[in-house]
């Protein structure tokens, strides 16, 4: 069993609330992976102060040197890839192969940003006046608080932590407690790569303590930027809190991601995409497929092929080659069962139970007794309507909705109706339809003949509407989150030249 503690300014803090959270293996609830010594709000604020104390020092390290630290993080993560992936698989039940992909994403992120250490370009800009030079610089924002979910317990945090550090910021990271051991492992690898104490702190505390600690940190001017990945409801609360202190957080929230299947689509490809993005990671990605919006002429055929593909997909032990393993934790499983309660009489549940892990099926929907693993059978619900709760809200589990349409314009309306806007996909061989869809769908990410999930680490990642506040992570675009532009003008004429007033006319 792994003992998990907070680390502030290089010092381990072994819990201040007296409470211990047990992070269980969702494939075998009897097995505790980690005991997390939970901290309270004051530890979160202390971590903000520790990070804030280091921000000048770290920000003054030349960016290429920070880039070298990022390079060693990448190398160290790569050298420990299998161990880290196995820990992720044990702690949240993500299939090992996917977990390896997740760890690979950290390495990709490091590869991208180590080079940015030698760029972080500013500009030279012409002045209105002679003998005057104008420049722009990217300055670090200062202290970044990173609060992350556990469905991507190491890659998504790295999307914040790596560029934030590269840009010269110090960081306080609050991971999800149900993925605490994976988070602690990543934190240790980062610190071992040469980060000075206090530059990357990690705090384990529950939601309310985090909120209180963050508020105090913001009020005391110890937090300059918040990065949050998680539900839209919590994101709204964090956004409100930051707004009170005139801050714009980077919010990466939920999704109800649509996939439009046009009459000319390659149906097998579309079905494969629906299976991967609907049921991969047990549907627990922010980019998971929400609703397949299928043209009425191919709707029946799509359902038939989808049903067959899902029935053949192996589920179960995350260490085996499976489509998906258990749900993340008991809390997520309970919530998913509630979402299944949104199925209405006018819906058709297409999938039947496709297997049993054990004989006594203790709860409806589970493939076996939940204690032996939070395995849930795949659910496909046909006949959803735009006004249904199931259609409008994220269900974060192995459930996909299907509905049909007649014209592309109707499909676009349906795609936008839930008010999220993260990822959207269209399957078609018609370029005009694909580009029209791209322009009209409100989504940060659009796929053509590809599923809604599986974004690459060097493209902008993020959403609109209920999926976020328009901020973008990843690639060069995230630099605008973790740096602030500063302009400088330098007048070497020896005179006071007044902008707008002393401009020479020709
Ligand atoms: C998330 O679920 O928070 O695009 C991120 C994808 C992943 C990231 C998902 N690379 O599916």
UniProtKB/TrEMBL annotation:
Its EC number is 1.2.1.3. The keyword Oxidoreductase applies. InterPro entries: Ald_DH/histidinol_DH, Ald_DH_C, Ald_DH_CS_GLU, Ald_DH_N, Aldehyde_DH_dom, ALDH7A1-like. The keyword Iron does not apply. Residues 21-487 form the Aldehyde dehydrogenase domain. One of its GO terms (molecular function) is aldehyde dehydrogenase (NAD+) activity. Keywords: NAD, Oxidoreductase. The active site is at residue 252. PROSITE patterns: ALDEHYDE_DEHYDR_GLU (PS00687). Homotetramer. Belongs to the aldehyde dehydrogenase family. This is aldehyde dehydrogenase (NAD(+)). It comes from Streptomyces yokosukanensis.
């Amino acid at each position: 069993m792994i003992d998990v503690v907070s680390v502030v300014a290089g010092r381990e803090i072994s819990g201040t609330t007296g409470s211990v959270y047990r992070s269980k293996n969702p494939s075998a609830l009897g097995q505790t992976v980690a005991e997390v010594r939970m901290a309270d709000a004051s530890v979160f604020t202390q971590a903000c102060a520790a990070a804030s104390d280091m921000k000048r020092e770290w920000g003054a390290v030349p960016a290429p040197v920070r880039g070298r630290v990022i390079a060693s993080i990448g190398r160290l993560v790569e050298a420990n890839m299998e161990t880290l992936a196995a820990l992720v698989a044990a702690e949240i039940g993500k299939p090992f192969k996917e977990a390896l992909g997740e760890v690979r994403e950290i390495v990709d992120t490091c590869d991208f940003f180590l080079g940015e250490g030698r760029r972080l370009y500013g500009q030279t800009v012409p002045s209105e006046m002679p003998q005057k030079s104008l420049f722009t610089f990217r300055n670090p924002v200062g202290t970044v608080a990173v609060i992350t979910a556990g469905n991507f317990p190491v890659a998504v945090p790295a999307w914040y932590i790596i560029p934030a550090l590269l840009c010269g910021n110090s960081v306080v990271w609050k991971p999800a407690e149900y993925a605490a051991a994976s988070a602690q492992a990543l934190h240790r690898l980062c610190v071992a790569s040469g980060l000075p104490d206090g530059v990357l702190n990690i705090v384990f505390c529950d939601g309310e303590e985090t909120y209180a600690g963050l508020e105090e940190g913001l009020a005391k001017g110890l937090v300059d930027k918040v990065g949050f990945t998680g539900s839209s409801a919590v994101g709204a609360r964090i956004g409100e809190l930051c707004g009170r202190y005139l801050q714009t957080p980077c919010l990466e929230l939920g999704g109800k991601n649509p996939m439009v299947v046009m009459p000319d689509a390659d149906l097998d490809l579309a079905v494969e995409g629906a299976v991967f993005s609907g049921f991969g990671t047990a549907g627990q990605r922010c980019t998971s497929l929400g609703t397949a919006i299928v043209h009425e002429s191919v709707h029946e055929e799509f359902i038939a092929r989808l049903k067959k593909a899902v029935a053949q997909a192996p589920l179960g032990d995350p260490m085996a080659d499976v489509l998906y393993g258990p749900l993340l934790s008991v809390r997520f499983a309970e919530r998913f069962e509630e979402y299944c309660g949104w199925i209405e009489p006018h819906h058709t549940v297409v999938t039947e139970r496709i297997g049993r892990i054990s004989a006594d099926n203790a709860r409806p929907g589970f493939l076996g007794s939940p204690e032996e693993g939070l395995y849930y059978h795949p659910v496909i619900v046909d006949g959803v309507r735009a006004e249904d709760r199931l259609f409008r809200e994220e269900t974060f589990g192995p459930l996909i909705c299907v509905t049909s349409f007649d014209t592309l314009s109707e499909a676009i309306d349906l795609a936008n109706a839930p008010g999220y806007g993260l990822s959207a996909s269209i399957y078609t061989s018609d370029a005009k339809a694909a580009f029209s869809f791209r322009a009209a769908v409100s989504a940060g990410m659009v796929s053509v003949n590809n599923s809604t999930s599986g974004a690459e680490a060097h493209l902008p990642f993020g959403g609109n509407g209920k999926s976020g506040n328009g901020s973008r992570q990843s690639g060069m675009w995230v630099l605008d989150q973790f740096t602030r532009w500063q302009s400088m003008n330098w007048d070497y004429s020896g005179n006071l030249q007044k902008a707008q007033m002393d401009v020479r006319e020709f």
